[in-house]
Design goal:
six-stranded antiparallel sheet; elongated
C-alpha cells in the first residue's frame, strides 16, 4: 500500500513507483526533515541494516520499510541529526550488503506507522537500549548482528607512510572496544581484519572512517564488512594481536611489540584523530617514527634520523648507484656511503626521517643481488663526505643535486604511487616507436624472465611482470632512467597491479 514519498502518508499510492528515478528531481527538492527517504535497497535488506545507517548520527525513532519497492523511511530523533546524516552521505556513498543506496529528505515531517508492528518496535527498542548505553539482551544482540559483522576488512590505499597494527588500534578504538587485529599484504596492498566487541561499533567506525586519510593526502582507509564474524588470532606480534589474550606467544621469531610502543601512541593520542566525520590528523613525527620502526626507533632513540644502515649486501655487486636507484623509489636519496672496512654494509641518507621509515618498512628483508638485505635506522644524523683529496675508491657518492629525485615537487603524483616491491613493474615515458618485443627483450637482458606484458591505451605506459620480486628489483635497478633514444629515459616503479 505504501509507495510514493510525495503524498500524505494516508494516501500513499502510485502503482508505477518502484524506487525509480522518475521522481528523483522533485524528491530531492524536499526541505530538510527528520524523516529520510532511502531508495534502491537490496531485496534482502533488513530493518536493522537500514537503522544502522542512521545510528552514528543520533537517535532513530521510527522506520517504515516498503519491501516490494526496495525503499524505506527512517525517522531520526531530531532534524539536526537527519541533516548531518544527509550531508555525510552526499560525500560518502552509503552501502547495504555492498549495494549503494540513495538517501534524501522525505516530504513527511514524521512517520505515522502501525504501532502494532511488534517486530519493528522490538528492533527500535533494541537500538535505543544500545544507544543509551545499556547492554543489549541476547535477542537484541541477534537483531543488531544482522546489521553487520563485528569484523571490518580494511585496505590502505596510497600507503606513503607505514601503517602499523598499533596505529589501527588507536584510530578504531575511538568507536568501541577493539578485540583483535590481523594485518597482511594481499595483491601488493596492505590490509587488515579488525574485530570489534559489537557490530554496532563496526558500523559506526565504517561510516566515520571509510575514505578518510590517516596522514595528509595519503594512507586512505577503504573499509568493508568482512564475511567473518570472529577472527582466530594465534600470535601476538607486530602482524596480529588478540587484545583479550595477552598470554599468546609471538611465534615465527616475530618480535612481540612491547608497551613502549603503545606508550608512544598514548602521548600523541590527541594528534591522531580529529573530529569525526572529518579528516584524520597526521601523526606527529615521533609517533610516526615509533609506528613505523616499532621497537627499533624507540630503543635506539633514532626516530628523528633520516639515515639508514643497510647490511648483508652482496659486496661483489653493490654500488652507490644501485642503492641510490632502489632506495630512491621511496624517497630522495641525498648520499650513499659503502663502508670501507665492511663492504657488505652501507649508510644511506634520505631527505627526511619519514622517507627513511618508508624505505625501511618496504625494503627490509627484500632480496638484492641474491642476498636478503637488512635495513635499520642508523644512529648517524648525516653521511659524511670524504675529506678533500682523500680517495675512498668511489664508495661515497653525493646525490643532493641529482635530477633523478622522484619527490622534489610538493604534491607530486609520485607520492600516490608508492608500493611495496612486487614482481610487476610500472613503466612510463615509453617512446611511441618502442614495441612490446623491444621492452620484453630489454627486461630479459636484465637477467630475468618476463611472464606478462600489457601496454596502457596511450602506449606511453605499460606493466611488465617478472617471474620473481627479486628479478623485478634487479630490473628496476638496471633500467630505471634507461635511455630509450631521442633523450627519452624510461621510468620504472613497482606496481600494485598484476597482469
Amino acid at each position: 500500500m505504501y509507495n510514493s514519498p510525495n503524498s500524505g502518508m494516508s494516501s500513499i499510492s502510485d502503482g508505477a513507483s518502484n524506487g525509480s528515478d522518475s521522481k528523483k528531481l522533485r524528491v530531492e527538492e524536499a526541505p530538510p526533515s527528520r524523516v529520510l527517504h532511502i531508495r534502491k535497497l537490496p531485496n534482502e535488506a533488513s530493518e536493522t541494516e537500514v537503522i544502522a545507517l542512521g545510528l552514528p548520527f543520533g537517535k532513530v525513532t521510527n522506520i517504515l520499510t516498503l519491501k516490494g519497492k526496495n525503499q524505506a523511511f527512517l525517522e531520526m530523533g531530531t532534524e539536526e541529526a537527519a541533516i548531518t546524516m544527509v550531508n555525510y552521505y552526499t560525500t560518502v556513498t552509503p552501502h547495504i550488503r555492498n549495494v549503494p543506496v540513495f538517501i534524501q529528505y522525505s516530504n513527511h515531517k514524521e512517520l505515522k506507522t502501525d504501532a502494532g508492528n511488534q517486530r519493528t518496535q522490538a528492533v527500535l527498542q533494541a537500538v535505543s537500549a544500545v544507544q543509551s548505553g545499556g547492554s543489549p539482551s541476547s535477542d537484541v544482540q541477534e537483531a543488531l548482528a544482522a546489521a553487520s559483522s563485528p569484523v571490518l576488512r580494511i585496505i590502505i590505499d596510497n600507503m606513503f607512510y607505514p601503517v602499523t597494527l598499533d596505529v589501527l588500534q588507536q584510530i578504531f578504538s575511538k568507536f568501541g572496544t577493539v578485540m583483535k587485529i590481523i594485518t597482511f599484504t594481499k595483491n601488493n596492498q596492505f590490509q587488515a581484519l579488525l574485530q570489534f566487541s559489537d557490530p554496532v561499533n563496526a558500523q559506526q567506525a565504517k561510516l566515520a572512517l571509510d575514505g578518510q586519510n590517516i596522514y595528509n593526502s595519503c594512507c586512505t582507509l577503504r573499509i568493508d564488512f568482512s564475511k567473518l564474524v570472529n577472527l582466530n588470532v594465534k600470535y601476538n606480534n607486530d602482524k596480529s594481536r588478540d587484545y583479550t589474550r595477552p598470554e599468546l606467544p609471538a611465534g615465527d621469531g616475530q618480535p612481540s611489540l612491547d608497551h613502549s610502543v603503545a606508550a608512544a601512541f598514548t602521548k600523541d593520542s590527541n594528534s591522531l584523530l580529529g573530529k569525526i566525520p572529518g579528516a584524520l590528523n597526521p601523526l606527529s613525527a615521533a609517533a610516526a617514527a615509533a609506528a613505523a620502526a616499532g621497537r627499533v626507533a624507540l630503543a635506539g632513540q633514532a626516530g628523528s634520523s633520516g639515515v639508514l644502515l643497510v647490511s648483508n649486501l652482496n659486496e661483489e655487486m653493490v654500488t652507490p648507484q644501485s642503492l641510490f636507484t632502489l632506495f630512491g623509489v621511496y624517497g630522495d636519496v641525498q648520499r650513499v656511503k659503502i663502508l670501507y672496512n665492511k663492504k657488505d654494509s652501507a649508510l644511506i641518507q634520505m631527505s627526511d626521517a619519514n622517507q627513511a621509515q618508508l624505505a625501511m618498512s618496504h625494503l627490509n628483508g627484500q632480496k638484492m643481488y641474491g642476498k636478503i638485505i637488512r635495513v635499520t635506522l642508523s644512529k648517524h644524523q648525516t653521511v659524511a663526505l670524504p675529506r678533500d683529496g682523500l680517495d675512498d675508491q668511489g664508495l661515497t657518492k653525493d646525490y643532493a643535486n641529482s635530477p633523478l629525485h622522484r619527490f622534489k615537487k610538493p604534491g607530486s603524483k609520485n607520492f600516490q604511487n608508492i608500493f611495496p616491491p612486487s614482481a610487476t613493474l610500472h613503466l612510463s615515458n615509453i617512446p611511441q616507436d618502442v614495441t612490446e618485443d623491444d621492452l620484453r627483450l630489454l627486461f630479459s637482458n636484465a637477467g630475468g624472465t618476463v611472464k606478462a606484458f600489457k601496454f596502457f591505451q596511450d602506449r606511453k605506459m605499460a606493466l611488465i611482470q617478472m617471474s620473481t620480486v627479486e628479478e623485478a628489483i634487479q630490473a628496476l635497478i638496471d633500467l630505471h632512467n634507461y635511455n630509450m633514444g631521442g633523450n627519452q629515459h624510461l621510468r620504472v616503479s613497482f606496481s600494485k597491479s598484476t597482469i
